[in-house]
């Protein structure tokens, strides 16, 4: 699983929250190149080991990260709901994904920093509309409070497990949409969506 998106959208914090349940506020240390962590999750009684690659969002590291796209089975594409350009750049990220990643890669769009709703500049509906246009599931998240962090990874793990069990793994599957949508209906989840 690869985390993608502009520098500062919260990819490293998102991964740290998932892995360690922690959030380090304060100084922002941009990722240099690429780094990974493993975490095992349980999906319907089956253990799924996720190897999660945290990429540097800065432009100067793009050539490094491009090399990893083709081995990715899933991509979490993040923008920051308080940063319009990070949202506007999502189309460019999707173009890169189209160019470098496998055709059947699982993609999920995440609007991060949903805890700072007062600084919001990207409406939830705009995230939803963009996701619908590209046919990918969407959620708003917070690496600070942990909102939907685990849910996003569980949805990915569930989809990858489902595909691994399929006769023809390249067949498109909409299970991830169904899973995300069913979880969103629960009141504890996605208060901003
Ligand atoms: N309020 C809030 N702040 C966040 C959240 N996620 C990340 N941040 C802050 O945003 C800044 C950037 O977070 P990072 O996780 O380092 O961003 P990144 O996307 O990994 O950046 P690069 O490594 O340069 O690609 C840090 O100051 C974090 O504390 C969030 O969900 N809510």
From TrEMBL:
One BP annotation, GO: protein transport
Swiss-Prot/TrEMBL keywords: GTP-binding, Hydrolase, Lipoprotein, Magnesium, Metal-binding, Nucleotide-binding, Prenylation, Protein transport, Transport
Cofactor dependency: Mg(2+)
Pfam family, one: Ras
Entry GO terms, CC: endoplasmic reticulum-Golgi intermediate compartment; endosome; Golgi apparatus
Reactions it catalyzes: GTP + H2O = GDP + phosphate + H(+)
Enzyme Commission (EC) number: 3.6.5.2
A single GO molecular function term of this UniProt record: G protein activity
Domain of life, source organism: Eukaryota
TM spans (from-to): none
Family: Belongs to the small GTPase superfamily. Rab family.
Protein's name in the database: small monomeric GTPase
Organism the protein comes from: Monodelphis domestica (Gray short-tailed opossum)
Gene giving rise to this polypeptide: RAB37
């Amino acid at each position: 699983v690869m985390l993608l998106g502009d520098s500062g959208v919260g990819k490293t914090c998102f991964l740290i929250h998932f892995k360690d349940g922690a959030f380090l506020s304060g100084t922002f240390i941009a990722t240099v190149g690429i780094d990974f962590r493993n975490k095992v999750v349980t999906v319907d009684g089956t253990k799924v080991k996720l190897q999660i690659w945290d990429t540097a969002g800065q432009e100067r590291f793009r050539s490094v990260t491009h090399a990893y796209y083709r081995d990715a089975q899933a991509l979490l594409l993040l923008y920051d709901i308080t940063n319009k350009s990070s949202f506007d750049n999502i189309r460019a990220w999707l173009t890169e994904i189209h160019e470098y990643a496998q055709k059947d890669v699982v993609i999920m769009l995440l609007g991060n920093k949903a805890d700072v709703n007062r600084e919001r500049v990207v409406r939830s509906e705009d995230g939803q509309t963009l996701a619908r246009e590209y046919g990918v599931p969407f959620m708003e998240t917070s690496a600070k409070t942990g909102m939907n962090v685990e849910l996003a990874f569980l949805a990915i793990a569930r989809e990858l497990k489902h595909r691994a069990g399929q006769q023809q793994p390249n067949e498109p599957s909409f299970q991830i949409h169904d899973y995300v949508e069913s979880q969103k209906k629960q009141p504890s989840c996605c208060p901003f969506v």
